Amino acid sequence: MSQVDAHDISHDDHGPEQGSGVIGFIKRWLFTTNHKDIGTLYLWLAMFSFFVAGAMALVIRAELFQPGHRFVDPNFFNQMTTMHGLIMLFGVVMPAFTGMANWQIPMMIGAPDMALPRLNNWSFWLLPFAFTLLGSTMFHSGGGPNFGWTMYAPLSTTYAPPSTDFMIFSVHMMGLSSIMGSINIIATILNMRAPGMTMMKMPMFVWTWLVTAFLLIAIMPVLAGAVTMMLADRHFGTTFFDAAGGGDPILFQHIFWFFGHPEVYVLVLPAFGVISEVIPTFSRKPLFGYHFMVYATGTIAFLSFVVWVHHMFTTGVPLGAELFFMYTTMLIAVPTGIKVFNWVGTLYKGAISFETPMLFAIAFVILFTIGGFTGLMLALVPADYQYQDTYFVVGHFHYVLVPGVIFALMAATYYWLPKWTGHMYNECLGKWHFWLSVISVNITFFPMHFLGLAGMPRRIPDYALQFTNFNMIATIGAFIFGFSQLLFLYNVLSTVRSGQKVGDKVWEGGTGLEWTLSSPPPYHSFTTPPEITPSLFKHDY
Amino acid sequence: MSKVPKKHFKLVSGLFLIVLGMFAFGFALVPIYNSLCKTLGINGKIGGQAVPYDNVVVAQDREVTVEFVATQTSTMPWLFYPKVKKMTIHPGEVARLAFYAENQTDHRMTVQAIPSVTPGIAAKYIKKTECFCFTQQTLNGHEGMEMPLLFHLDLDLPAEVKTLTLSYTLFDITDRVN
């Protein structure tokens, strides 16, 4: 590929090489090794998956609008809950943050591109194939996977539909993709920083991604192992999870949650990073307690490996283990509390303005904290016996994932989109999007806590009459939330196509290397290493 | 092809080794889990080994209730139940009972019974002299059989355990045997 070599060396500021016509367009995007192009691909994949998995959520909510059999049959309902979970995790949040990492990390550390551009291309292009495979299961005879995203054996082995094998291979491909993506991110951050950009000067978004990438290379192989064992149990006569042959289905839960709990922090740590960028910008103050933020991130990542049994308190684990995992779980509240405290500390006496990214960031701090508190309730062993497998759990993790992680993604998009496109988004539409989202997200998920406390179980297509009112409220909220996201799509599309031109420094309070580049930035971010001056940073060091 | 700089190569190789190590660790969790459960006796599993009954002192002053449960999975077309639902025994005393099993299908089937004990911590104090779970059981269609179980409780059984439940689940392993 001498062509790429040539344009690595020649250059100054030129755009992507693109042939003519449809073939040229396809070749450009298929063969691109540019971090911004690949970031864009990741982000559009996430946007597409967001609406697909969101539509599935609306099928779930429509069925639950009233008790009784309404729209879809129970097996299809179960497929919807499974696919909604899998796609939202692996198809929306992870690719979206990887896309942002691709766009932002080279710009934030003063690098020309990612460390391993070809690997980067492969990491992305595995994903569309993985999701085609996963999506195809819905059209197989016997239907798609219907055992929940947690894939508990024996539901996913003995009793699973034939299409489960396709899901397993799709998980393998997603795992491969995110492992390679993470290796690339680590190599970029550790090896490509501009001279003078020491570790403790790196922006928080870069720090959180560094930690996340290490989490990913530690846990994705374990998930790959777990689904491989599932595959072996299904077809090769092994009995890893089958009691009849000396295996143990509880073992599956241990392996799965050894992956699954750190995975939660894979989703939320980059969100913490985004919030730590947005709040200082719009408070016009440096980030309060930068060092503590870094250490807290590391602590959360470490603790995430020693809490997994809190997902399994009711499986009959010994009392000693229940106590150990209860305390370690509650310990996570300490570094997380430090983060929330520091965000509030950054806001304190700041010259705050409420542009759309800031609105989403503030909503994140408040609503994520609610999700954190319900998490603490679930960490209590005796209480967990009551809450386990109820809508309380659904309410809890949707509070950390929707007004938490998804809001952070929205904040990040509004925050960096003007930099990426060179156009300002429509602020009025952005505010409409925010207020509709923040109101409807609470209408949707807050009643779920009450439903759970009253005893409504998760993952059921029908329920007892007394749960009707809260379910109706939740469904109405879900539809408002779902359709509000079309405003977001429209706003992003119209910003990409046109809009008011912005300068290099889009936000008055913005500090950091990305704001020293033009908007949109040159195709190769920093061809000569930038000078690192103290004024570039949102934090004291 | 552009050269990957040496520093990337070194770092990426290291990271790749971590990935391989963690993939292996995922599989290593299987023996780790099994041996941990076995040593600590925490998942209610009983060893498949017969323990001889000799020189055992009977603790006449202590009584423990043992309940017997036969679990039927919906896919097992067998009749399966304990002949006695529960008994009260002294630790050290031999308990003798039988489970009844009947193959209600028209064809020959082989099954394996898997025991489980609640509370899990009591599992390692159940000493079986004879159990139908030690071997596979084969029955012809519509054939029935009483399956014997001989066990005693170890004297070291923790004092707080006053009732324990011994459960058996039958699994069809006809395909695997043939």
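qc> Chain B touches chain A at residues 1-2, 4-5, 7-8, 11-12, 15-16, 18-20, 22-23, 25-27, 29-30, 33-34, 37, 40, 42-45, 112, 114, 118, 120-121, 169, 171-173, 176 (CB under 8 Å).
qc> done
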